[in-house]
Amino acid sequence: MKLLFLTDNFPPESNAPASRTYEHCKEWVKEGIDVTVITCAPNFPYGKTYEGYKNKLYQTEEMDGIKVIRVWSYMTENKGVVKRILDYMSYAFSAFLAGLFVKTDLIVATSPQLFTTLGGCALAKVRRKPWIFELRDLWPEGIKDHGAIKKRYLLEFLTKMELCLYRKATHVVTVTEGLKENLSSRGIDPDKIDIVTNGANMELFNPIPKDEALMKSLGLEGKFVVGYIGTHGMAHGLEFIVESIKDLDDEKIHFLFVGTGAKKEAVVALAEKLGLTNVTFLDPVPKSEVKRYISVIDVALVPLTKTKIHASLIPSKIFESAAMRKPMLLGVEGEARKIVEGHHAGIAFEPENREEFLSALEQISKGGEAYSELQKGCDALAEAFDRKHLAAKMLKVLQKTKEKHDER
């Protein structure tokens, strides 16, 4: 089978969509699938091309058997709305043009933003091929909750566009049960929706000793480190976390934030205003370095703001942290909480509830036998969500979709 995959994030970018797509495609190639990915020059999150790449109209490379086509796009930092929409639209248009010349049996286009999937839909229409909408997050509903777009007519237009794409898709793959329920409640046939969750790359992420050199360089020796590694966005509620820890009495507890995003400057400014000495902020690190930084933390902080949409999500940090035996301090409701608590892999608190957060932090920072039991729970969680098994599950969905289309 020849497969064409549209995604605006792909390695060497190291965010969640890039990792999921790459790891799935790599496994599919091993199964004999001819995979072509159309993406853009790596530039996330700063909107600047990585060393060794140029923002050219068209360039190709091969990565672990995956044929990668990189097309031109308007690049901007991962902040604001208008410029980012221009970024999304330019990539979608370029990907559509490039896709006209790629032989394929099936097209997959991934969200959260809709323009990549719009490009996939248009390409499938012109090429008369089946296509799959991979839904990783609800958009525009998510940005509506955060007030990033306030113009009602624009939100209404994007919502109509979203529903149209779900209906036009031959099949939909979501990453959580909550997302499937959301689509079903809005009139999308549940029989055309499958769930393939995110998971852990057990080859890349596995338990290792703490990186002593890194700990020393960061001044973390003798500390109980709570780490957040990822996007500092509107959805993550990091200002709440910083505000909540201003009165911590335990000087051994230290917070490490690694990454950037739309709220990074505001979070750093708040910590400086409060005069916090128990917080360290670092810029993003390459994917190859993430493992070192996870190694030095004792607990993985996984927060989201308290919204109905976020209760339907499962942050990918859960799986990477579990694979490295790092118990979680989880501020997410719904399915994510069920997974973490069901495997006894962390302690959950109600999102943006200061009292519950501090109580959970105190409990998990005590260490001892209770902490060791949480580490065992991490082992069980990671094994249950091995990315290889999930890639095989999604491949069956792709093959089934193609077969049904061929029978028509």
Please give the structural blueprint.
Layout: E1 2-6, H1 16-30, E2 34-40, E3 58-63, E4 66-71, H2 82-99, E5 106-110, H3 114-127, E6 131-135, H4 141-145, H5 152-168, E7 171-174, H6 177-185, E8 193-195, H7 212-218, E9 224-229, H8 238-244, E10 253-258, H9 264-274, E11 279-282, H10 287-295, E12 299-303, H11 317-323, E13 328-331, H12 335-342, E14 346-348, H13 354-364, H14 368-384, H15 387-407
Parallel strand pairs: 1-2, 1-5, 2-4, 5-6, 6-7, 7-8, 9-10, 9-12, 10-11, 12-13, 13-14
Antiparallel strand pairs: 3-4
Concise description?
The protein has two domains: 220 residues, 3-Layer(aba) Sandwich (Rossmann fold), CATH 3.40.50; 173 residues, Rossmann fold (3-Layer(aba) Sandwich), CATH 3.40.50. Helix content is 43%, strand content 17%. It is built from 15 helices and 14 strands.
Keywords:
408 residues, alpha/beta, Rossmann fold, 2 domains, eight-stranded mixed sheet, six-stranded parallel sheet, 14 strands, 43% helix, globular
Fold and architecture overview:
The protein has 408 residues and is α/β, with parallel strands linked by helices. It has two domains: 2-199 and 386-407, Rossmann fold; 212-384, Glycogen Phosphorylase B (Rossmann fold, 3-Layer(aba) Sandwich), CATH 3.40.50.2000. The protein is 43% helix and 17% strand. The chain contains 15 helices and 14 strands. The chain has helices at residues 16-30, 82-99, 114-127, 141-145, 152-168, 177-185, 212-218, 238-244, 264-274, 287-295, 317-323, 335-342, 354-364, 368-384, 387-407; strands at 2-6, 34-40, 58-63, 66-71, 106-110, 131-135, 171-174, 193-195, 224-229, 253-258, 279-282, 299-303, 328-331, 346-348. An eight-stranded mixed β-sheet has the order 3-4-2-1-5-6-7-8, sandwiched between helices. A six-stranded parallel β-sheet has the order 11-10-9-12-13-14, with helices on both faces. Strand 10 (253-258), helix 9 (264-274) and strand 11 form a beta-alpha-beta unit. The protein is globular and about 65 Å long.
